[in-house]
Amino acid sequence: MMTFTLKRLLYQLHRWTGIAACVLMLLWFVSGMVMLFVGYPKLTPWERLGALPALASTVSPAGCCQPLARVAIPVDAREIVLTTVAGRPAYRVRDGAGRPRLFDAGSGKAIGPASVATALASARAFVPGADAHYLGLVQEDRWTHSRALDSHRPLHQVQLDDGAQTMLYLSSATGEVLLDAPRAQRLWNFIGAWLHWVYPLRNHSTDPVWSWIVIIASALATFTALTGTLAGIWRWRFKGRYKSGARTPYRESWMRWHHVTGLLFAGFVCAWIFSGLMSMNPLRIFDPQGQRPDLAAWQHGTPATVRLDVTPPQALNLLAAHGFHAVELEWRVLDKQPYLLARDGAARTRLLMRHDGQLLVREQWPREQLLQAAHRLMPGMAAGSEWLRTYDAYYYGREPEAMMGAMERRLPVLRVRFDDPQANWVYLDPYTGTVALGLDRRQRAGRWLFSFLHSWDLPPLLRAGPWREGVLILLSLGGLALSATGMVIGWRRLRTWWRARLKPV
After folding, report:
1. Alpha helices of 127-238 — where are they, by DSSP H?
2. pLDDT tens-place string over residues 312-369
3. Is 457 left (phi over 0), alpha (psi -120 to 50) or beta?
4. What is the three-class DSSP state of 129?
């Protein structure tokens, strides 16, 4: 009797929660298929760097040798980069709180908040030959929810008259282009990522109301999928048949197709909806715990206090002699050793450092120096290291359309595992001298419960290319059919319920 009552309760819960959940699931399946090919607007490193001129064409010995020493760099500066903004060389300096400021590379004087003229000049330099129309300042809109943009708000919004009708968002602090959104990408996103992530309900980069709406909606959909799977299994005759001769008890076509598609695609639908819930990190269950790798100790110095004694023209000439044409120079420190990180228009890198008093250009940091510095991340806890020449399950690249498609993932990379209570792993990029990725036990679990279940993003599957996408589309169509039949059934049930309430007693 208790078993019958429990089953009856689950049937009723599935029926009534499914009315709302099927609408959500149908929207998620449609938008998810779009997201396989069109991503949320973002500016990738290769797009940003590819739009910059070679520094050698803008930097002169007379105008840029000494100003760095005269720049009023904050004592807690964590970033000093020589770049080009609106066609002029400038130092971008970021203080300890993450606030960016711009200094003229020729005079060393601070450049105030970016003007409208600076924003328009930067926009025209980003797409040469395109006319630019200034649209105003935007604090936040549907394309600019990323928290990475917070230190640059409000944002200058500029419309380009290029072939793609690109919308640009630029920093009000520095005037640099931060995000590009072509018209086609914006239009597809209305049924893609913007819809998938329920961004119509999001108002700020940090929005707890939106977060909890998505968490509750995802939990509801997960519950509906699980109870539907149980109900479908219970009602299916694995042995024998119903009087109709079928294995399903439903004679009505919509109910029959809902039952059959539910059984065929139940595993995928449950995993996919559940992993969407996990993407929201409910109750912060995947937040790192305990001791974290100490990045300050890894660097053991800051570019504000320890800098390589070389002028930009000297550095650029040396790089050019090695066939490398830099568009940015960044002052960095690793284990008390200052160096320059140079990037070209294709996001390739070179390192400038001194060794035995000689200024050298290197492609990578030596492994021994990386390991020596790695011990500072978590002293006394290094358990082992491996030089990876292929991607593993945690460190891998994604296509630009993906949510993490702007992350740089170079190979080879040095993976260091620590034997601390949280079992931290770090991946050290020898091309830049930075920690490319750090994960503890909880974060690695989140990778499997969200990324893998949601995107099938294991490196071997990603290499399958169209085959992976084809299978995901086929499964998504199955989920779409399940959701659509559920919507029809739910609408009929609501209509019957409503008519019964309106019927005179």
Report:
1. 183-189, 193-196, 208-235
2. 888 999 999 999 999 999 999 998 899 999 999 999 999 999 988 889 999 999 988 8
3. alpha
4. coil
Q: Looking at residue 8, what is its pLDDT?
A: 86
CA dist 478 and 187 (Å) reads 25
Percent pLDDT > 70 in the chain is: 97
pLDDT at 309: 85
Q: What is the DSSP string of 236-273?
A: S-SSS--TTSSSSS--SHHHHHHHHHHHHHHHHHHHHH
Alpha helices in 127-207 (DSSP H): 183-189, 193-196
Residue 158 is inside which H or E element, if any?
Answer: strand 155-160
| Residue 354, φ and ψ in degrees, nearest 5 | -100, 140
Q: Which long-range contacts (CB under 8 A, 24 or more apart) does 92-100 make?
A: 92/174, 92/176, 94/151, 98/151, 99/151, 99/173, 100/151, 100/152, 100/171, 100/173, 100/174
| Distance between CA atoms of residues 291 and 144, nearest Å | 32
Please give the full DSSP string across 289-330, using - where no structure is assigned. -S----HHHHHTS-TTT---S--HHHHHHHHHHTT---SEEE
> What does the DSSP 8-state code read for residue 393?
S
By DSSP bridging, strand 413-418 and strand 382-388 are antiparallel
Amino acid at 353: M
Whether the pLDDT of residue 120 is over 90: the answer is: yes
State the chain's mean pLDDT as an integer: 91
What are the structure tokens assigned to 395, written together? 């460190």
Dist. CA 38–CA 169, nearest whole Å: 19
Q: In what order do the strands lie in the sheet with 132-138?
A: 132-138, 155-160, 167-171, 177-181
Section 255-274 average pLDDT? 94
How far is CA 73 from each of CA 93, 123, 194, 299, 338, rounded to the nearest angstrom? 7, 27, 39, 18, 16
- In the chain, what is the straight-line distance between the N-terminal and C-terminal CA atoms, in Å? 33
| pLDDT score, position 505 | 57
pTM: 0.92
